[in-house]
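Customer escalation, tier 2.

The customer says the design service returned an amino acid string that "doesn't look like it belongs to this structure." They asked us to rerun it and document both sides in this ticket. The original structure tokens are below, unchanged.
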């Protein structure tokens, strides 16, 4: 299985390098925040813009995922606490004596 993963990783890297080499002559200009102030970067290679935007997207995804994981861990702690409380209540109910006098249950029969 590890050999397949490495093979796929090498193939992906080769495709990325091939894409970068084919687009190495493409020059673009990037305008950032043109509404607030006019900030332009001229003559940037296309592959660099694509990889930078991909990298920033991965970083954004990582930050969002970290917050989501922390939220899920907090929910797991809360559910475990509730489970432990219910388990202790169940254990205390199991330890009640069984007998003829079931006054602990307060069950009223309808006639």
């Amino acid at each position: 299985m590890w050999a397949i993963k490495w093979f796929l990783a090498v193939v992906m890297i080769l495709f990325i390098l091939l894409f970068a080499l084919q687009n190495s002559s493409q020059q673009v200009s990037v305008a950032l925040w043109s509404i607030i102030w006019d900030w332009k970067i001229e003559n940037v290679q296309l592959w660099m813009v694509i990889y930078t935007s991909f990298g920033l997207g991965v970083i954004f995804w990582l930050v969002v995922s970290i917050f989501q994981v922390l939220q899920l861990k907090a929910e797991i702690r809360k559910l475990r606490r509730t489970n432990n409380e219910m388990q202790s209540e169940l254990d205390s109910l199991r330890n009640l004596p069984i007998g003829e006098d079931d006054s602990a249950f307060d069950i009223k029969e309808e006639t």
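Tier 2 assessment: The sequence is consistent with the input. Residues 15-93 form one domain. The mean pLDDT is 84. Sent an explanation to the customer and offered a walkthrough call.
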